[in-house]
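User: Batch of two.

Assistant: Item 1 of 2:
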Amino acid sequence: MELPEGCSIYSSTESVQGLICFKTSKMPIVWNPSKRQLITLPIPRLSWNNIIVFLGYDPVEGKHKVMCLPFRRSSDVCQVLTLGPAQEFSWITVKTYHKHCSDYQSSGRCIKGVVYYIAQVYHTHAWVLMCFDVRSEKFDMIKLHADIYREILITYEGRIACVEKRTTKDDYIALCILEDAKKDKWSSKDILAPFGHFDERLRTFFQLKGCTHDGEFIFVSSTFRKMDYILFFDPVKKTFRRFELKEIADDQARVNNGDPYGPIFAFCAFLDHVESQMSLQ
């Protein structure tokens, strides 16, 4: 799909009930791959120079909502837009009741009608897990310990999970899984990884992107190269499957890009994508 003229994408949300939201410099773009439709949303009403976006879905009323926060700037308000007929697009201002700051590393996750994302509390060094109930448009906050990878937030067995920085000699991934948000109850689980996060042959860093319904963990490289692959790792069977992506970019494209050996394209992975017949027109 071609982007609107002059538009540059900086980041994207996950796939939420068939839709994906991209962030440009000041406005969000919503994409429905099934309908091959892109729509540019109006600029949020508050005068933020830059924004970060999240996409949520309310399974009770069957509605998607786009959330906007200022990028790397503390705020106690959020802009929310409910998707529907294009002529009805309108942002509303919602109080968060917790002044906080989020940035490009905070990849949100929508689970059972709640959007989770990692943020920092205003005037502190405390990192928290923010929770936005899509239907009620209410915010809540859960404390996090500092020893986590803030750029990794995944869905694990229907629950939100963070990845700890600690490692063991056997190269395990340590998951912190939210068991009860109201009681702030977490559990911990060590998952054996298929490698030490670094592939020497391709000189590519791999990052944990999430978990399938069958329990396989998905590792994806951050960039496209001439040949790349995705790993699906089964921690129970201790086996992995590799899906190769060949001839994404040829040698001449690299030379034209000025780096015959390096990556030339960003690589985004959207897990659990489903078909959606929702029209964005």
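Item 2 of 2:
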Amino acid sequence: MSQFFDDLHAKCEGLPPMPTAVAHPCDAVSLCGAVDAAREGLLDPILVGPEHKIRAVAEAEGIDLSSFRLISTKHSHAAAEKAVSLVRDGTASVLMKGSLHTDELMHEVMQKETGLRTERRLSHVYVMHVPTYHKLLLVTDAAINIHPNLEDKRDICQNAIDLAHALGIAKPKVGILSAVETVTPKIPSTVEAAALCKMADRGQITGGLLDGPLAFDNAISKEAADIKHIRSEVAGDVDIMLVPDLEAGNILAKQFTFLASAEAAGIVIGGRAPIILTSRADSVAARLASCAVAVIFAAAQQGLQDAAKAEG
């Protein structure tokens, strides 16, 4: 395992395996991912899907399912519905995507009466180790919100700050990206960046230090920021990169991965529980890293809930 995963795994030390509803783990990648996470002590998987398909995959892969709870459903849609219900009723603390399509799972997640929605918008956060950068880097949103408006970005920003807190970053620095570092009405993302900074000043976003708009070079390089005479505690030292839209975020994250040899974990947050959306292309280490991030975040959220109950 890489140092990136080892560091995430270390943050899980002392935490019990997190009960996790795994929706439709009916191929080798998704079933092995859940089983590997269980072996690492990260997850306590509840396998939800057509029993004959799950057992066929287990037999082909030489996996003993005797220690796992298995809930049989007729098809993938029913598996998604049941897995979401297990999280909603508190049986599971994490939701994990199996071999069904992401849209099928998220359809159930987004149901108003039976899903996992809260007043906060759901968003995806990549947690990345980029070898050419001096610390952990969070990139959001590269997978869920296609064209987020200002209100959406407020939630996307707050979600990422909350995850940074769970990872031990006390006051994360948020760089709000655009093509330029000046507010320009012809580039709406610069106006929204400025508005987000003022929202933070007014307490509408809490727990982080925001600056924007910042072009990528100013966000990632203190030298570039100095050349352009940008006075900022955030520039050159960001913990979180808030991108203008999904296309920009997706391209950015993949550039880090394929051009800078970055390692990445990713989860969806903003709902009742974290959601692990792994890709078939993810390595075993990447899948385990995503599981570790979900465990860390779920434990942190549970701690906040327990503290609120104690105060109440």
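DSSP finds eleven helices and eleven strands in the chain.
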